[in-house]
Amino acid sequence: MAEVLITLGIIGIVAAMTMPSLIGKWQEKQWKVAYKKAYSSMSQAFLRMQANDDFLDMSNIAADPDTGIYGSPAVGENFKTMSKYFNTIKTCFDNNADECWVCEEGESALGGAQPYKGCLKTNYAFVDYSGIAWYMYNNIEWPIIVDVNGFKSPNKLGKDRFVLKFSVNSSDDLYINSADSIQPWDDQIEKQRWCPSGNCLYKTWLLE
Question: How far apart are CA 32 and CA 181, in angstroms?
């Protein structure tokens, strides 16, 4: 009896040590699959939008005199139009981004604060039928952040949140009227603004 109890105790200890790792790998796999699905959905929406001639010119405009930020309002308008090519369950285009996007406890690369949590309620967001949430980092700049499990945690960049952008020939040129695709952000390994937790495999996960 004592030997059985000892054996069960050892099994319990081993299980306790390995379970967190197994759960972590399972979650990572789920996020990776959902990320690929989200990227495919956004790319298809973009192509359908182009085919229907719904895409607006995103040529650069002069810097905003108050913020100094370059960009084009057409970026945000294109995002809103693309939402029509999803089966959306909620759109948040009226200063209510927090109704579609976890702001307080989520990483959004919001400038000027560590660890870049929060969001701007004035930015555009929507949620599609599968529960995936979409958020414009800035309504005049092209970073689009997708949270593949919506309001569920951990709401971290490179984990369940990923960054996409309008692009032409896979380049990083800003606000171009000939954008021909949606592209992922480059991999970010070091901890920084677009990857506060480190090891954000934005491109690599799509290729695996």
Answer: 21
